[in-house]
Automatic annotation (TrEMBL):
The lineage of its organism: Eukaryota, Metazoa, Ecdysozoa, Arthropoda, Hexapoda. SUPFAM superfamilies: Voltage-gated potassium channels. Residues 69-132, 169-243 form the Potassium channel domain. This is Potassium channel domain-containing protein. It comes from Aedes albopictus. It is found in: Membrane. Pfam families: Ion_trans_2. It is a multi-pass membrane protein.
Length: 373
């Protein structure tokens, strides 16, 4: 089985195992708290219904009104600033869900806008990530040079450390700002920044949703948008180093296998004048282990090197593959003999992976002194 297939199967097994582990952990951490909250909310609902004599239908209407009015605390969601914020969450695939289109035309445009905008955003952030990594490599090189390091070139480990530090500083700085503007705890702010920059976008915590912020705090709106765009560029730089390396491994292996297959087929044996040459790899040379010369008329020569043997008259003369050197005149005369009409590889060898290398056939033309595959 190819290692690309093994890697793919391993990734599938690891992913599903990771999902099962995550489900078990979340179940242990959150299920009891969910039950307690559900009981508390049900008790409050019963108290309100009994105290104010509200029917179940009226209570559902009140509940719906409260839930639908939540986004309007930020101001008008579909004016330019709010629409720009929404477009940013669509293009970056964050998708908080704090505001959604209610008209058919708005939903149609959202789908068309996302179909074009998401690939555009991915390409843009990937390109920015590459530039960030390039700038990081220049900075690392300059620092190493100033300290007279032997290896001044930035390695992948150096770049990973740089972008990891930059990502941590971005999240830490953004969390401090959101903690001040939104009155969140610092931990909740860190959680919001991480969920945003990884484009998970649960929507349980969304910035710019209080005190009419979209209309009254333009500087805060600008900061939030810049934070999202800059932070995603930094995350893209990290993904460029960490994730894409593994994503392209299968493609690189496939290209390498194709190149090896092409190289294995590029075998050229040429008999030109008195020179025999071979253009092949070490694996391919085993195809030339023995070459049979059918019924040649060998001259009686005791002085020339014995490059030909005759172990079996049914096979003919044998020339080993190692004899790819200039032949003396008597040997060329033998090969040009009228009886010598063809030689071919007749013994099959096995390659490194246990497969059979099929025999090659060569047409020998005595009048021209050539052998062609």
């Amino acid at each position: 089985m190819k290692k690309q297939n093994v890697r793919t199967i391993s990734l599938i097994v690891c992913t599903f195992t990771y999902l099962l582990i995550g489900a078990a952990v979340f179940d242990a951490l959150e299920s009891e708290t969910e039950k307690k909250r559900w009981k508390a909310l049900s008790a409050i609902e019963n108290v309100l219904i009994s105290r104010y004599n509200i029917s179940a239908e009226d209570f559902k209407v009140i509940e719906t009104v409260i839930m639908k009015s939540e986004p309007h605390k930020a101001g008008q969601q579909w004016k330019f600033s709010g629409a720009f914020y929404y477009a940013t969450t669509v293009l970056t695939t964050i998708g908080y869900g704090h505001s959604t289109p209610s008209t058919v035309s708005g939903k149609i445009f959202t789908m068309c806008y996302a179909a074009i905008g998401i690939p555009l955003g991915l390409v843009m952030f990937q390109s920015i990530g590459e530039r960030v990594n390039r700038l990081s490599s220049v900075i690392v090189h300059a620092v190493k040079t100033s300290f007279n390091c032997k290896k001044a070139i930035a390695s992948e480990v150096d770049l990973i450390l740089v972008v990891t530090t930059l990502s941590s500083l971005t999240i830490a700085g953004g969390a401090a700002a959101f903690s001040k503007f939104e009155n969140w705890s610092y931990f909740d702010s860190v959680y919001y920044c991480f969920i945003t920059l990884t484009t998970i976008g649960f929507g349980d915590m969304v910035a710019l949703q209080k005190d009419n912020a979209l209309n009254q705090k333009p500087e805060y709106v600008a900061f939030a948008l810049i934070f999202i765009l800059f932070g995603l560029a930094v995350v893209a730089a990290s993904l460029n180093l960490l994730v894409l390396r593994f994503v392209t491994m299968n493609t690189e292996d496939e290209k390498r296998d194709e190149a090896q297959a092409i190289q294995a087929l590029q075998i050229a044996v040429k008999l030109d004048g008195d020179i025999i040459t071979g253009n092949s790899s070490d694996t391919d040379r085993r195809c030339y282990e023995r070459i049979s010369v059918s019924g040649p008329s060998r001259p009686n020569c005791g002085t020339c090197p014995r490059k030909f043997d005759q172990p079996d008259t049914s096979i003919g003369y044998i020339m080993d593959a190692s004899y790819r050197y200039p032949l003396v005149d008597c040997e060329m005369a033998e090969l040009r003999s009228p009886n010598t009409v063809r030689y071919n590889v007749y013994e099959m060898e096995t390659d490194d992976e246990g497969g059979l290398i099929p025999p090659l056939r060569y047409d020998f033309q005595p009048s021209r002194g050539r052998a062609s595959v």
